[in-house]
Amino acid sequence: MRKKIGILSIIFLFFNCLSLSSQMRNPVVAGKWYPADSQDLSKLIDNLLEKAEAKAPSDNLRALVVPHAAYVYSGRVAAEAYKVIQGQEYDSVVIIGPSHRYGFEGVSIYPKGAYRTPLGDVPVDEQLASRLSQVSGFEYTPRAHEKEHSVEVQVPFIQKTLPQAKIVPVVMGFQTPQYIRTLSQALSEAISGGNVLVVVSTDMSHHLPQKKAHSKDSKTISLIESFKTRTLMKKITRRENIMCGGGAVVSALLYAQNKGKARVKTLKYADSSQFGGPQDRVVGYLAAAVYARSSSGSSSNFSLSDKEKRKLLWTARSAINHYVKKKEVFDYTPQSAHLKTKKGVFVTLKKEGRLRGCIGMVEPKIPLYKAVIQAAIYAACKDTRFSPVSEEELEDLQIQISVLSSLEKIKAPRKIKVGQHGLVVAKNNQRGLLLPQVAVENGWNRKRFLQQTCVKAGLPKDAWKSGAEIFIFEALVFPDEG
């Protein structure tokens, strides 16, 4: 008898584990809040994204704020947020929404399996979900996800804009300051690496006359843009009618600040009456981007994710190998729209720590990935200071890429910050450029840096004092291991 019970227990555990590993959250508002037919849904989102006008901030995105009403009302606003990430490469998206139908303490983190929509199944990033749960102490509350739309309506947009990304669905219960702070800290610790985006799902004020709603929402947006998290938490604690997902918004703001300096850019605001709803009972919708702010406060705000940097380094090495071995230009187009941005770039080659070639382009005339391919080939085979790289040397090359900001003409040399700025000195059709890292590697001060840039231009070393134009720029520099 005991043997039979033991066997039955094993069978039960097996099927229980099997059901957990294949856990599927089926859609509950498909056909109500968005089309249930896959072709209709795909076409609708494509049309919304095509009409969206938002442009991606040049810095690394940390979070998006997106509305979660039926697509007929909030779809156009949501598309403005998702337009920013379309074609970029994120490994995972943490979606945080409020619980509308089930009140509970804490936060529910969906642990494994997938979320299903008419467009297919999106797998949960189980490792990230587990880390977030362990760090925060929050567990999985099944009823929080069963009928909740705030997370679900984000998934089809993610499927269309980031088709390779996994998700971590998170539903907030009672939005207390304690839970808000715990979640924000957990996000900071769990997302310590990798290429992860946070999407916050919230609508603004609910069921107010249009004029009053616009006034209230304007004040709330101002608080969000200025990171007034304490004020926002007080309003949320008092259950003021400002946002249904206010706790998620504040958690994302605190998370962004924990990662460093951050800014909020409002992409679009609208209300339900603008899309067919009554004007006396409107719901406000906000699309916003929370992104890293350059610590220097300069115009050099362009950033790349670690994954995008690795992709560019791979592109440079592949271009060199392909050209050296086959005398052909490497043909490759990345998926990331970020890598198609027109940027100036330099590729530096070293062998055993010594310079082996360095060529690039200052002006942002072609897409970044194409500029890297061209600069890599020229650095390897067209730098007249060196003989062309041989096939035997390929494995020994160390590659460094420097993505340049726009040039800024200056009159006062004191504006030059060694280690931060690169220099261009120009006079009489002669121009010399030195990258920011060159001054650091050689231990130069500002004066020596200026002199050496003049020499690079073929000018007298003190030409910067007598009529030469001086330009500064910054560079996003990243090497590989070779």
Folded structure, characterized:
This protein is α+β, with helices and mostly antiparallel strands. It has three domains: 24-292, 3-Layer(aba) Sandwich (Protocatechuate 4,5-dioxygenase, Chain B); 301-402, Hypothetical protein ph0010, domain 1 (Glycoprotein, Type 4 Pilin); 407-482, Hypothetical protein ph0010, domain 2 (Dna Ligase, domain 1, 2-Layer Sandwich), CATH 3.30.1490. 38% of the residues lie in helices and 23% in strands. It has helices at residues 2-21, 38-51, 71-85, 126-136, 142-146, 149-152, 155-161, 177-190, 210-225, 229-237, 246-258, 306-326, 368-381, 436-442, 446-456, and strands at residues 24-25, 61-66, 92-98, 107-109, 114-117, 120-123, 166-172, 196-201, 206-208, 262-271, 282-292, 344-351, 354-361, 397-404, 408-410, 422-427, 430-434, 469-473, 475-479. It is elongated, with a radius of gyration of 27 Å. The relative contact order is 0.10. Mean pLDDT is 88; it is low at 1-21 and 295-300.
Main traits of this protein?
about 475 residues, alpha+beta, Protocatechuate 4,5-dioxygenase, Chain B, Glycoprotein, Type 4 Pilin, Dna Ligase, domain 1, 3 domains, eight-stranded mixed sheet, 15 helices, disordered N terminus
Largest beta sheet, briefly?
8 strands, mixed
Count structural domains: 3
Provide the CATH topology of the largest domain.
Protocatechuate 4,5-dioxygenase, Chain B
- Mean residue pLDDT: 88
Report the end-to-end length measured between terminal Cα atoms. Answer: 65 Å
Shape: elongated
Portion of residues in helices?
25-40%
Specify the CATH architecture of the largest domain. Answer: 3-Layer(aba) Sandwich
Sheet/helix structural class: alpha+beta
What is the CA-based Rg, rounded? 27 Å
- For this structure, what is the CATH class of the largest domain? Alpha Beta
Please tally the β strands and state the result: 19
By CATH's scheme, which homologous superfamily of the largest domain applies?
Answer: LigB-like
Per DSSP, the total helix count is 15
Q: How much beta, percentage-wise?
A: 15-25%
Low-confidence stretches: 1-21, 295-300
